[in-house]
């Protein structure tokens, strides 16, 4: 049973999702760390690339450039090569960085060696190529020397030119008073001996641990060159990233579980109710406590239960009514047959045969009514809607009724000839025919038939008479199968109590309704059936009526 549980599949899917996201997070962390490290290396070397290229550009001839490069290599304790640009294969992104006087850093993860490429503004045919296999305090303390060498050419304007080149550096570089720095006496003593110092600072902020390089300025005893603080690169540890990811997914899974549990509980209630229905118990109803799909499911189940319960009750009532209605003509036929067997008078025998024929015709009519009602009651019949000229149909029913020689006055208030409505012609004809027959049966003298479109754009047919009318408290019961307000009068007039029930069900399947009130002109009963004149453009009022019909 568990392997068929949708919720078990959902929970298994969540576990698989957690594993997949964990693997994805690992790859993502590795990619992000690599990209962050590459950007960190490049931003640290951009400023020095500009300063070194400026130092090379100031040399007057190639020999002096080579001497300056050699001195810089010795100072950094790193090999610096003066190579032709055509010998170095650059990507488009690397070429753009060199054009902006920034450095290109190529990192070899296997040997942990960085290859730094610097462009020369005054010598585009050559590049500086540095192999950095180690970064120690020696290299860091050498960086201020290149900056001071750059500032030597601008005596008295050092701060101005530092601001000028600041945008090449991603960290601060400025001249400060030594008294403004948090230095101890030993550090101040080392500065006085023309030694550079490195300051480490730990911080709980986003920057974390930072490094500042402080170097004395030869021409000043109170001011120093401060480069930094430079944040150290902080690798995002996989354990931390994976832990955060898994914790987030765990919390997400708990949230999903919390959302699924009420749904699972509601589905169990639906399953319990369906099992009860299989045993024949139709009394269970589900609470509709939300407007979502589960609430819609509960509402649909309740409506289905109501409909099934009503069908079963209607079937029972139909069986009782049918057995009762069939016994009368059958008993008359049996009595007539017995009389026929004992009677020798030819004329009398012909009268009995004629009565038997009428009873058989009554049986056929009753069976036809019962079959029509059963078809409409059990479920939606196969309806073939078409455009029906309303005047033509009403006029046809009036002519057919007049042919029965009822002796009643039939009046048609004809709708406009151009009005066409969407309907199943056979069933709409049955509606008007049943309403006309009911009105003729109970009117005193006059019946008026009308039809058309109302102010909401719905089609309607209306039949009213000048009879005694129908009491308001009986207007709902009259649509029940085999219902009779006056049993003796109904039998005398030849009704079975199914005509109005059939009208009610046809109205329902048309998407409309039938109502009874008092005729303002004739004083008797008025039956009005309305339904959408265009099935593809239903009005809100008709939709509300359909909802009311479903509830009833």
Automatic annotation (TrEMBL):
One Pfam family this sequence matches: HisKA
Membrane topology term: Multi-pass membrane protein
Keyword field: ATP-binding, Cell membrane, Kinase, Membrane, Nucleotide-binding, Phosphoprotein, Transferase, Transmembrane, Transmembrane helix
HAMP domain location: 273-313
Record's subcellular location: Cell membrane
Start and end residues of each Histidine kinase domain: 321-535
Cross-referenced SMART domains: HAMP (SM00304), HATPase_c (SM00387), HisKA (SM00388)
Enzyme type, top EC level: transferase
EC number: 2.7.13.3
Transmembrane segments: 6-29, 238-260
PROSITE patterns membership: HAMP, HIS_KIN
Catalysed transformations (reactions): ATP + protein L-histidine = ADP + protein N-phospho-L-histidine
Protein name: histidine kinase
Natural source organism: Acinetobacter cumulans
């Amino acid at each position: 049973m568990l392997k068929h549980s949708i919720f078990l599949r959902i929970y298994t899917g969540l576990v698989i999702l957690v594993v997949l996201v964990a693997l994805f997070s690992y790859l993502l962390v590795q990619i992000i760390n690599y990209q962050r490290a590459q950007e960190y290396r490049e931003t640290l070397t951009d400023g020095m690339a500009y300063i070194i290229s400026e130092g090379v550009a100031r040399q007057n001839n190639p020999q002096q450039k080579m001497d300056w490069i050699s001195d810089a290599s010795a100072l950094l304790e790193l090999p610096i090569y003066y190579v032709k640009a055509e010998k170095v294969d650059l990507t488009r992104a690397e070429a753009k960085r060199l054009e902006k006087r920034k450095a290109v850093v190529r990192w070899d993860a296997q040997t942990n060696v960085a290859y730094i490429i610097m462009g020369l503004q005054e010598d585009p045919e050559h590049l500086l190529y540095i192999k950095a296999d180690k970064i120690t305090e020696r290299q860091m303390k050498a960086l201020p020397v290149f900056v001071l060498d750059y500032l030597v050419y601008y005596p008295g304007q050092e701060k101005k030119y530092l601001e000028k080149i600041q945008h090449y550096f991603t960290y601060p570089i400025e001249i400060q008073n030594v008294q403004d720095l948090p230095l101890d006496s030993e550090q101040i003593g080392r500065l006085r001996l023309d030694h550079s110092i490195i300051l480490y600072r730990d911080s709980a902020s986003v920057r974390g641990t930072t490094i500042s390089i402080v170097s004395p300025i030869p021409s000043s005893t109170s001011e120093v060159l401060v480069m930094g603080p430079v944040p150290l690169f902080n690798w995002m540890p996989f354990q931390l990233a994976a832990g955060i990811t898994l914790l987030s997914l765990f919390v997400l899974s708990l949230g999903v579980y919390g959302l699924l549990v009420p749904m699972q509980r509601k589905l169990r209630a639906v399953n319990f109710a369906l099992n009860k229905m299989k045993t024949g118990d139709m009394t269970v109803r589900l609470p509709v406590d939300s407007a979502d799909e589960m609430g819609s499911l509960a509402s649909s189940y309740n409506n289905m239960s109501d409909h099934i319960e009503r069908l079963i009750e209607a079937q029972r009532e139909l069986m009782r009514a049918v057995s009762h209605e069939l016994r009368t003509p059958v008993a008359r036929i049996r009595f007539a047959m017995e009389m026929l067997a004992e009677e020798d008078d030819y004329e009398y025998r012909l009268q009995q045969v004629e009565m038997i024929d009428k009873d058989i015709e009554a049986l056929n009519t009753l069976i036809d009514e019962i079959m029509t009602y059963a078809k409409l009651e059990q479920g939606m019949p196969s309806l073939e809607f078409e455009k029906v000229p309303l005047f033509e149909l009403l006029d046809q029913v009036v002519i057919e009724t007049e042919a029965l020689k009822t002796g009643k006055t039939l009046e048609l208030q004809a709708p406009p000839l151009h009005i066409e409505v969407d309907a199943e012609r056979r069933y709409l004809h049955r509606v008007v025919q049943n309403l006309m027959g009911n009105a003729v049966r109970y009117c005193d003298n006059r019946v008026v038939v009308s039809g058309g479109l109302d102010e909401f754009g719905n089609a309607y047919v209306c039949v009213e008479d000048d009879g005694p009318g129908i009491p308001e408290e009986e207007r709902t019961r009259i649509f029940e199968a085999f219902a009779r307000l006056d049993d003796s009068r109904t039998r005398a007039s030849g009704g079975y109590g199914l005509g109005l029930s059939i009208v009610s069900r046809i109205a329902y399947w048309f998407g409309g309704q039938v109502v009874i009130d008092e005729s303002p002109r004739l004083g008797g009963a008025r039956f009005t059936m309305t339904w959408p004149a265009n099935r593809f453009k239903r009005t809100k009022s008709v939709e509300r009526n359909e909802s009311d019909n479903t509830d009833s």
